[in-house]
Amino acid sequence: MRKKAKRGPLSVHAIAGSYVVLLGIDMDEKSSKGVLGFGIERTDHTNNDRRDWLQGFKTFPNSGLERGALVSTKDHPIQAFLWADFTARSGHEYTYRIVAMRGEPGKLKPGESVKVRFFMEDEAKGTHAVYFNRGVAGSQAYVRKFGNKPPDKVPGRAAWRWLSRGLFRAMLGFIAQAKGKQYALRAAVYEFNQGAVLKEFGKASASGADVKIIFDARENSQNTPNKSNREAIKTAGIDAITIPRTANPSNISHNKFIVLLKDGKPIQVWTGSTNMTNGGIFGHSNVGHIVRDPKIAARYLAYWERLSTDPEMNRKKELDMIRPFNEETFPVPDGFPPEKATATIFSPRQSLRALEWYAERMDSANTGVFLTAAFGVNDLFEEIFAKNKDYLRYLLLEKAGKNIDRLRVDPDVRIAIGAVLGENAFEQWMERERLTGLNKNVKFIHTKYMLIDPLGDDPIVISGSANFSDASTRKNDENMLVIRGDTRVADLYLGEFMRLFNHFYFRMVANSVPKKNGKVSSGKLTSDDSWREPYYLKDSVKLKERLYFAG
Question: Cα separation of 524 and 538, whole Å?
Fold first, then answer.
């Protein structure tokens, strides 16, 4: 949902997902003089017209507030032209009032204002239902709610529910649709040991549904995830409905999808980046994406049926039982997929054409690129990011990697890297942030998606299980969706991208700032209007961000 509003010199562009609202604020430079920031008031029309000022952590110097206190943006306004509300609720109707605050700290006076009213997206409705977990156990919000306790040390299920943010419930609910002999499930999974999920598959089978699950059972040096998968399957008592994928043990069966069939016909598919483990659901960032389209579900089913034979890969094409099939049955789109359509790309493949096609889409962007990369940035993508482009490109990384400097050649490439705040990073912030401990290798960013021109009328969303790498293209079992022209899906993904980008960018910067007496020597609001100057500086990143998100 996108909605613009303008009143006098002040305007706002709201981009609403299911749980995130992005507010792109704009004001001409002359009118903005003397503005110390923006106060934001929210009215929740779905909740008895409850009206509140949004809160933040940053304060003016010498505020005298106790550590960890949240402050009203009416008294300590937002000194930025892009702001995100992460406390909105799916399906609710809101009005946001943006107020230019003038005067001086402690004696602020409201100036120009503008209102915008809209509905949040309902994540469960539509052809595409998109569920993101929280992905930020290392956050002030988690510390505030649950202290620094791991989720299994917090009484009840509150911490688990907060971390999942509906992803777990949606996954179980998708499986639970298969109830009775009318239904069937065909799943292909990588890490597969979350007890409740395996139990739900077992319940579907016991109801009479025809359930079959391909799981990664390839034996390697660490015997992972084969060992834990087999142990969990045995514990759940679902051996009879599983199919081990053992061929080509140096590769991985990296899919995480489920096809739902009714009366023998595929009708829906669940896919995305989420492994069926506690770490995947409640730990690092992930997405579950349902497509309620029989044609798309049929493609996944055809792919699943080939995988179910445990096909061998071979250097000789005539002996290769999977890659030629994927190339011929699911060809890479020639140019762009048709407008308002969804395409699918399955791996392994014989060549890197799919990866090259993703790079071409990135290179042909007009206004913006947004990419998550859990295992680094492929060389093809690095070449595109190293080019000088006159628009912003955002990278969300698990870790810096050896080629991070090349990615920073163009100043319009903005990069955020997974991090938590150290002890006493800011005086007004709470105690040190910690992760759940559920993830060993990838701790922060596990999603695999790319957004091309997401705020335009013809956005492209590419999302699935593949890590945009050589191995994910030529060796591993992978699946990707390519969704063109669906602004609702683009808004859902963009809001979640910026939620995580801002979260980790702030921590990355804070952890790099010199400290005095164990505390970061900044982190306060400025007491005058000098904060706004970079947003009007020609060719600056902040100017481009202001204009892009303001629409």
Answer: 25
CB 444 within 8 A of CB 504: yes
Residues 456-492: tens digit of each pLDDT? 999 999 999 999 999 999 999 999 999 999 999 999 9
User: 215-219, 293-297, 321-325, 336-340: lowest mean pLDDT where?
Assistant: 336-340
DSSP helix/strand/coil, 405: helix
Q: Which of 64, 6, 105 is nearest to 529 (CA)?
A: 105
Interval 327-348: pLDDT, tens = 999 999 887 777 789 999 999 9
| Number of other residues whose CB lies within 10 A of the CB of residue 198 | 23
List every span in the chain annotated with CATH 2.60.40.10.
Answer: 2-122+531-549
Are 232 and 198 in contact by the 8 Å Cβ rule? The answer is: yes
128-507 in CATH: which number? 3.30.870.10
| 169 to 160, 202, 282, 416, 489: CA distances (angstroms) | 11, 16, 12, 29, 20
Instruction: Report d(CA 42, CA 454) in Å as an integer.
Output: 25
Pairing of β 449-452 and β 515-516: unpaired
Taking the whole predicted model, whether its pTM rises above 0.85 is answered as yes
Please give the Cα distance from 2 to 402 (Å, whole number): 38
Given a contact cutoff of 8 angstroms between Cβ atoms, the answer to whether 522 and 2 are in contact is no
235-293 per-position pLDDT tens digit: 999 999 999 999 999 999 999 999 999 999 999 999 999 999 999 999 999 999 999 99
Q: How far is the C-alpha of 35 from the C-alpha of 28, rounded, in Å?
A: 12
List Cβ neighbours of 181 (8 Å cut-off, separation of 6 or more).
208, 209, 210
Candidates 3.30.200.20, 3.40.50.300, 2.60.40.10, 3.30.470.20; CATH matching 2-122+531-549: 2.60.40.10
Q: Which residues pair with 483 in a beta bridge?
A: 342, 461
Ranges of CATH 3.30.870.10 domains, the chain: 128-507
Residue 318 pLDDT: 92
Tokens for 360, please give them: 């071409």
The residue among 34, 200, 201 whose CA lies nearest residue 111 is 34
Query: From CA 301, how far away is CA 291, in angstroms rounded?
Result: 13
